[in-house]
Amino acid sequence: MSDQRPRIIETPYWEVILMDKQLYLGRSVVVLKRPCGDMAELNQEEILDFFDLVRKLESALRQTFGATMFNWGCLMNDAYRETLPKPQVHWHFRPRYDHAVQFAGQTFADPNFGHHYLRGPEDEATASAELLNLIATEIKKNL
In what order do the strands lie in the sheet with 14-18? Predict the structure, then answer.
């Protein structure tokens, strides 16, 4: 992960990093801190810590921005585009909103609420480092 992306929270086993594309306000990636390419290789402590982190993140995004629900995905497809794949267990976290959210002078609207999240050109807008830091700071207040 890029060092320019703000870290929202870190546990003994996972780190949560705010993604630079913020079509879905609070969109983050939750990455296992040790090398591990398969969910079946997670140990009990890592799994329990992950579910505690799910509770914390979902609660924080509800409190911070009024998120309605959440999409979680563990895909790891991109790793297998390489000749020698090096998958790493991680989860994509997308808060979803049934309403527009005003934050830092911008309007964040979930254009496809109630349907699969968008991927592609609609999701290409990259937030500035300043905006990412403001979002991360606001979320951290509720963790």
Answer: 7-10, 14-18, 28-32, 90-96, 69-73
Which one, of 77, 114, 89, lies nearest residue 99 by Cα? 114
Q: What is the DSSP letter of 142?
A: T
Class of domain 7-140: alpha beta
| Sign of the CA dihedral with 73 first, then 32, 29, and 20 last | negative
Angle at 27 between CA 22 and CA 33, to 5 degrees: 130
Q: Encode pLDDT of 106-128 as tens digits.
A: 999 998 898 888 776 555 678 99
Residue (of 107, 104, 109) closest to 136 by Cα position = 104
Residue 125 burial (CB < 10 Å; 0-12/13-18/19+)?
exposed
